[in-house]
Amino acid sequence: MRTNTRRWLIGGAITVVIVTGLYFGISGYMGYQETAQQNAQLTAAPITGVTQVALSNFAVGPANIQVPIGTTVTWTNGDDAPHSVTFNNGMADSGLFKKGQTYQYTFTKAGTFTYHCTVHPGMVGRVVVTP
Ligand code: CO
Q: What pTM, to 2 d.p., does this model score?
């Protein structure tokens, strides 16, 4: 093999390793940030005036909302992986839905309703429904 060809191949391999490392490093850091934000929201007071929830970077945002009874909440999957909105008390389960797809649920009872993703147990959210 000619030296120039070998150098080109080694350079290409190094570039692939660096680009791959950057991709996973950056996406991993973004996921870490989103998850940290999700968990901080779960320990804080619920956010009011929001009916749209994102499932993005393997985290729920905003993860803790408060709505009046009769409100329809919409969840949107922003990830390449499928997610679900599965209520811990069994009252509803979206099943898996894909990137760009949404799930809606109308809350008809007051209370605090916690949900998770069946694929990613770290994805957790809460809806506080007021009478
Ligand atoms: Co998920």
A: 0.84
